[in-house]
């Protein structure tokens, strides 16, 4: 454990500031390979995250384990997720155990984090062993989460490495099962498909570009998923 790791894990911002001022390495690795920024995100301390970033901490350190964004999603810290996205966190960072940050947020049912990731342009159909975020939503039996993913383009027919669709993991007659069955039999409305196509064309910075489009305010709200 490095000098900055323990305070970062505990969200002890002042201790982190003192250590950094004394020359501690901002991206020093822990025994498991994680950095202080990973630990600060795991603790959910937004102030500690800000201090580390202000001292040059890498938001996308070269890791084979969970990234800072993964850790923020595991913790359910929407504030940390929002800040990491703003400073350029890799939305598709892949951990061999967790998959992408979106997989993590869905597995933990962190809906605020999920919406932030999707609105920022995270790939809703990214696969971990062919398993998508929608598979996770079905497994945790969260109908609201499943519907959110579908509205952002989640593929209800995607099959994992066992050849199973998300609906195959839902409990019979549950709200999640009914939600998935509905969308398997009924495609998204044309307006929803147009929204997906436009956002896809605008890329990962879609949310920043949409407010500047020469269209009515209510259309901007619709494209931004704010209504």
Automatic annotation (TrEMBL):
ANK repeats: 32-60, 67-96, 97-129, 129-161
Pfam family, one: Ank
UniProt keyword Repeat present: yes
Highest rank taxon of the organism: Eukaryota
Entry-linked PANTHER family: ANKYRIN REPEAT AND SOCS BOX CONTAINING 13, SOWAH (DROSOPHILA) HOMOLOG
Entry's family note: Belongs to the ankyrin SOCS box (ASB) family.
Protein's name in the database: Ankyrin repeat and SOCS box protein 13
Organism: Thamnophis sirtalis
């Amino acid at each position: 454990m490095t000098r900055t790791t323990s305070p970062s894990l505990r969200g002890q911002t002042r201790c982190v500031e003192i250590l950094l001022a004394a020359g501690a390495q901002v991206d020093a690795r822990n025994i498991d390979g994680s950095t202080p920024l990973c630990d600060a995100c795991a603790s959910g301390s937004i102030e500690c995250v800000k201090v580390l970033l202000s001292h040059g901490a890498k938001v996308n350190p070269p890791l084979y384990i969970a990234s800072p964004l993964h850790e923020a999603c595991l913790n359910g810290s929407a504030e940390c997720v929002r800040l990491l996205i703003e400073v350029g966190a890799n939305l598709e960072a892949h951990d061999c155990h967790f998959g992408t940050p979106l997989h993590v947020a869905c597995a933990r049912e962190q809906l605020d984090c999920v919406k932030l990731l999707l609105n920022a342009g995270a790939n809703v159909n990214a696969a971990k062993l062919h398993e998508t975020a929608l598979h996770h939503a079905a497994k945790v039996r969260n109908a609201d989460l499943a519907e959110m993913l579908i509205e952002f383009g989640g593929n209800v027919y995607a099959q994992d490495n066992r050849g199973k669709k998300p609906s195959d993991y839902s409990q019979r007659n549950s709200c999640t099962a009914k939600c998935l069955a509905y969308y398997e039999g009924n495609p998204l409305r044309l307006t929803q498909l147009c929204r997906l196509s436009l956002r896809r064309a605008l890329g990962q910075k879609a949310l920043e570009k949409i407010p500047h489009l020469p269209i009515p305010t209510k259309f901007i709200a619709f494209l931004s998923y704010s209504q």
